[in-house]
Amino acid sequence: MSLGSDESVVVVQDLHKAYSLGSTIVRALNGVSLELKQGEFLVVMGPSGSGKSTLVNMIGGIDKPDSGSILVTLNEGNAVHLNELSPKELTRFRRQNVGFVFQFYSLIPTLTASENVELAAELIDLSNSEMKKRTKEVLEAVGLGDRLDSFPSQLSGGERQIVALARALVKRPKLLIVDEPTGQLDEKTGHEMVQLIRSTSEQFGSTVVMVTHDVSLKKYGDRVIHLSSGMIVKEESND
Amino acid sequence: MKKTYKSATRDLYFHKGRSLVIITAVIFIIAFPLALQNLAPNLSETIELEQEEYKLSHFNFIFAGYLPEVFIENITHWIEDELGRPVAAELARIQLVHKYKISSGDWLQADLVSIDDFDNPALNLMKIDKGRAPITENEVALLTSFGEKESIPVGSEVELQTPVGIQKFKVTGYIRSIEFASYGLIQRGLFFFNSLSINRYLGFPLDSDLRNSFLIYIDGKVSLEEERRVIDRVNAEVEKLVEQNKSPPISFPWLTRRVSFRQSLSDALDITSKYMLVSTIFIFLIAGSIIFVVMHRYVQDQKVIIGAMYAYGIRKQEIIMSYVYRTSLLYLIGSVIGYYWGKMLLDKMTATLADSWGLFSYKTGFSLESLVFTFLSGYLILISFTLLALRPIFALTPYEAMRGRTTELKSSGMLFMLSSFIRLRSFKYGIRNLLRSRTRTILTTMSFILALTFSASIMYTDYSTRASVDVFFEQNVNFEIYAHTGFEDAANQTKLNSIQQIENVESVEPRFQLFGNIKGHPELVTYLVGLQHDSKAFIPPIIKGRNIQENTSEIMISNYIANVYGFSIGQTIMLTIFNKEMNFTVVGVHNDSFQTISIIADLDYLSSKFIVPGSNQTYAQRGISMFNILMIKLSDSSRTQQTVNLLNTEYEWIEYALSVEVIHRQQKSFVESQIQVVYILVLLGLIVAFMTVFTTQFISLVERDLEFGMLQVFGKYKRELYSETLVEILIVWLFTILAVFLLSPLVADRIWIQSVANQILYVKFYVSRSAQLFIAVFGLVSLLVSHGVSFRWATSLKPHETIREE
After folding, report:
1. Helix, strand, or coil (residue B355)
2. Beta partners for residue B739, in sequence order
3. Alpha-carbon dihedral B230, B235, B241, B245, rounded to 10 degrees
4. Tell me: the pLDDT tens digits for B515-527?
């Protein structure tokens, strides 16, 4: 596969990132290059410390590389180099284009399920009625239509993660970053969760990058890359 | 070291912000109470030590006329005979009250004191601050604070309106005397003469050795009982001489160490102690709530770890001890800093008051009792609030704790549900965030309220005290000039008529005013004031009982006498006036800001009891009033200064004439000196308020750093987060200000005014709009600054760091 083809929405080239942990320098990414096509579901696998989260954080605009580039073309003909954006521009990028689902839900405890979802919808300019409509629609799509007014503390772990997914999807993100979504869930719920991510992202037209170390989940991806020591060591396709 | 303790120690380092907040709270509960408790005792000790070091006289017998200098030997003999021990030092001098025109054009009372030996006075030692003592008959020295404040430089010439006309004297130096308070406090001029220059001033021959003030200093303590005996003995001896026409009567026997400015200082110290005690309680409450807020949050954050430790089988007691250890460690650091800050604060406060009261020096130190009390109560507060914060965690099972279940983060309740109807999201989220941690919100708001109420109520008290004096002068004083004459002038109708004939004089009302002693209380110097019972010029505000009736032996006592000496309505008290003992019945209590320690009697009654000098008729029988003060009302008050000038320069029989404005200023200055500590407390209160606002704000924002980080990851701008959190603090501010506006008048009126300020003067509570505005703006600015700084800190995590932390 050649890098930078016309269909690519994300083009990552030769990413390097090092962190210092005390006196130790940890090379989290060590020359990673990859491409993501529109609507693709990419699964990133690898052992702990292989650089999975660092990679998706950079694709999602949360972190910046030491070197290398991330070219994102989510709006037609409007490509941006994330590595060149200021923190404020990165925030705008995330706000308009990216949905996130993390292992620990990260729901706001003082907001109901629907309000947690609305919180994300507020970030894009929607009218109040449109926001309400979309929220209801996305929560129904993920099967939580009957828990709209529940607070996070009143939901189970799986339900909280579903709210987190709905929150990510409500703004119809062009890019959905999902980091260890099943880490807090049992196996059955975990599979149901990833199926839901797959189906709803297809429904909403999002390109997905999902990090997991659960090998049983790799079957849900269109493509799987394996990282080790900050490098892609293996790439599989689920055609 | 056990692992739990090791982890606790490291945890304090890893959460530096939180540790700093607790250390700050500990500094509060150590530094402020230590300084506050020791201020009054330190000043009191300073005054005591200075009295000994500078040999402050015990007695000062001021005579109504002059006697040869050797007369002091008689007094010494009587006292030694009475006490059965020798007098250590004696001094005869001239002491007068006269007048001086300051550069602003106002005339002031001026005390004139002659000293024979400046280099080595027998008692009442002095300190020459600048220049030298006067030597020739043309020289004077000034009280340092007077010379400095009125810009009369050493080397310059002063023009004095002497009994023999205007005379010029050269100012040779500035002197401080143990006997006199600072000019800022008493607002009276003070000139030091030598024996030659005072004779020149009075028009006596330069070699005259006549004196009117005889002072005695005794080594060691002299009890009040001994002082009473001495006064009675000297009075009796002098009375015999007066009967034989060998001596003028004693005008007034001063117990220098108990009366005059020393008394006002000890009153001020008494008030200071009370202010400090109440302030200490406030500080404990404020700091306690800060500690609770912080520890509560601390424990909440650690609940998963606590649950895990609990689950591993670590005993509850041990876990509790690890928290007690944490706070104890912080207490140790905070208390050491608090001790030194307390010392610094005490030094500053003592220096400020000592300087304004005209003390020579000051000494500071903490008493053992205050150290034990402060350190123990500080530690007790810290540990109590820590345990209180830990309590809810131990109500959970280890599993509940580990899962992060908490009774604290509530998502229920009517208000919480009602907030769903709020359309404006920032308000909705703000209210919910406040409701989410109710205990924290309540305690944070309570800390703000306590801290701001503390400052606001003191400001109200200060304002009310000044306003009470102002209102008194506006409503009860209906004359413009206060002219002091001799008693002999009362018999001269021509003199009185001459005043009435001055252009611009509308009316003149006589007033009698003399220092008097209540029998058995030589330590209590009071002004005995004779007033016409239906006086138009001066209307004493009655706060209890009723006014005196015409021609009766009824009196009204001032609020101070009633409060400090416990006299009450219906009581009969004996007063000594011109060696004559007279009984009076108390019928009312008045609130006289003119003379705060005064007894008002009927002028007609007094006139009927005293004989006009040189005759055998009473004043009443002669159809005149017995007076030594004229209260002069002008038809055009804008020309007061010209009339005062005229009276002081053209009427040599008027000892001094002052505008009521000057007396108003003096009284205000006196009352302010009594509550001077209030200014320091206002400042301290504001510091405490700011620190409280800052620390609680800091904790409540910093604890949400991950939430802010996540919201930024989702694409929320910092400015959006800023405005949402701002709404939260504005809601808190609104509640705080409303509560402060409701509570501070109550605290000011019921605590500060009723139990503290009212001792001297009956203070009526007045709402100060400027104080309200100041507190509202101060509260808001403190919140905005605290919010800005804390927000910056709370959002310092980068998005990827947030994810990693999460």
Report:
1. helix
2. none
3. 150
4. 777 877 766 778 8
